Amino acid sequence: MYIVTAEEMYELDRHAIEQGGMSGQLLMENAGRSIAERIIQSECKTNSIAILVGSGNNGGDGFVIARYLMQAGFSIHVFQVVPNEKINGDALFHKQLFLLQNGVCSFMESPEEFIKELEPFDVIVDAMLGIGVKGKVRSPMKEIIASINQWSKKVIALDIPSGLPADEQTALDISVKATKTYVVEAPKQSLFTEWGAPYYGEWEVVSIGIPSISYQSNSYVKKWTKEDIASTLPRRDRFAHKGTHGKGLLIGGHKMPGSVVLATKAALRSGAGLITVATEKDTIPIIASHCIEAMYEQWNHFIINRNDVQRFDAIAMGMGVGKEPFSKDIMNNLLEQKEIPIIVDADGLTHLKPLLPIREERIAPVILTPHFGEIAMLSGKTISEWKRSPFFLAKQYAMTNNVYIVLKGKFTIITCPDGTQYVSDTGNAGLAKGGSGDVLAGIMLSMIMQNQSITEAICNACYIHGKSAELLVESGQHTEYDLLASDVIDGLSQVFRTIF
């Protein structure tokens, strides 16, 4: 599933028309019909529906929906929020079809009387502005949107709630807050931001028949799905041995031994063959008592014997490592090992900051797993700036510093050094607990040692981590309140069963 900006969606439409042989009228018909079919199913107990249409494709889709709903027996009234001269092209064609079938359409002249006009209706369908919002919303549309948001009944948005920017390039002014949104063809970027997602309500993507060849550009952000992980996660060879599945090194636990326990158990539970934990001498018995399957070393061993890390296939550092200077010495040593992938998490990010950007001669990747506070620390920008433009800033930062960025949150954004981006949206509020990030780091360490690309490994790790939390809550074993990071580790077996 691809995630697009407004300009990218326009380009998809253009390609479908100019290269795919589809007319704008047909694309509009497909969109309206597909959404109408879903409304007919979901609103079967509803009698009257008001459809608010503006100019452009969004309004044209609204007229198609109105026609199909009217044919299905609903009481339909279209309220046009723009003058007649604003309705033209393909939208005018579908308006005329609606009127020829005795459809009722009136021009909404007074925003002050808006609520009174809508009072008799059970549902509003918002087909007013679409993805073309630029800057502030002007009157009378601003007042109309404010009135809709005071309405207590169901609001269904077409493609995107009116007033909401499709992507990060435009700041949010005012937007319809929809109960449900039927997204046309591809989710828009704002759906995967903290500032935009709440306005969509529940959402569902509706295909309108744009040819797959139109998506050939590699510039689109991709949402990582169950189909993606099922096709990329390697099956186990029956002749495999423990070395086949990777020898991983976890460095940390100085301040918080529990963080390394979680990462270690997660790595082993998600398929790692061998895990060695490097920590301080006094911490080893504590960690070993909770995870007997791992091996243990004092971490000063890897300062004295600098090249001994070469026996590992991948390394994760940072979970509970603390901010003491000797931890920085370990980080320096790790970066000198040019052929070993490194995951840097938690306190490790602090030690890494002065060492960025990663030297181009380094062959193996460096993967950073920050939350918004940590990426703000690394970049010098504020948390609010990152939340406003996570896609743009992550792409800029990853390419500048030659690193992979796993920006953790409700929508985890994975960005590669070449600027390619993916989104994993599995998970729930139960993951908003201490230790969840340590579990993710452990799963990721395991995944990058399996027979898959680094990008696939990172995306699969994020998907698996979130999916475990989802399944544990959906099955009734836990709720979002009581779910612990250790529970997520225990739930990994359910995830793998669903994948395979």
Question: How does the SSE layout of this entry go?
Answer:
Blueprint: E1 2-3, H1 6-18, H2 24-42, E2 48-53, H3 56-71, E3 75-80, H4 89-100, E4 105-107, H5 114-118, E5 123-127, H6 141-149, E6 154-158, E7 180-184, H7 197-200, E8 202-206, E9 221-223, H8 226-232, E10 247-251, H9 257-269, E11 274-279, H10 284-290, E12 295-298, H11 301-304, E13 314-317, H12 325-336, E14 342-344, H13 347-352, E15 366-368, H14 372-379, H15 383-388, H16 390-401, E16 404-407, E17 412-415, E18 421-424, H17 436-448, H18 454-474, H19 485-490, H20 492-499
Helix pairs in contact: 2-3, 2-4, 3-4, 8-18, 9-10, 9-17, 17-18, 18-20
Give the class from helix and strand content and strand pairing.
Answer: alpha/beta
| Average pLDDT taken over every residue | 94
Q: Determine and state the CATH class of the largest domain.
A: Alpha Beta
User: Which strand order does the major sheet show?
Assistant: 1-9-18-17-16-15-14-13-10-11-12
Oligomer: single chain
Beta-strand content bin: 15-25%
What is the gyration radius calculated from CA atoms? 26 Å
> So, CATH architecture of the largest domain?
3-Layer(aba) Sandwich
Helix content: 40-55%
CATH homologous superfamily of the largest domain - what is it?
A: Ribokinase
How far apart lie the N and C ends? 21 Å
Number of strands: 18
Largest sheet, in brief, is: 11 strands, mixed
Number of helices: 20
| CATH third-level topology of the largest domain | UDP-N-acetylmuramoyl-L-alanine:D-glutamate ligase
Unreliable parts: none
How many structural domains does the protein architecture include? 2
Cofactor: Mg(2+); K(+)
Catalytic activity: (6R)-NADPHX = (6S)-NADPHX; (6S)-NADHX + ADP = AMP + phosphate + NADH + H(+); (6S)-NADPHX + ADP = AMP + phosphate + NADPH + H(+); (6R)-NADHX = (6S)-NADHX
Subunit structure: Homotetramer.
Keywords: ATP-binding, Isomerase, Lyase, Metal-binding, Multifunctional enzyme, NAD, NADP, Nucleotide-binding, Potassium
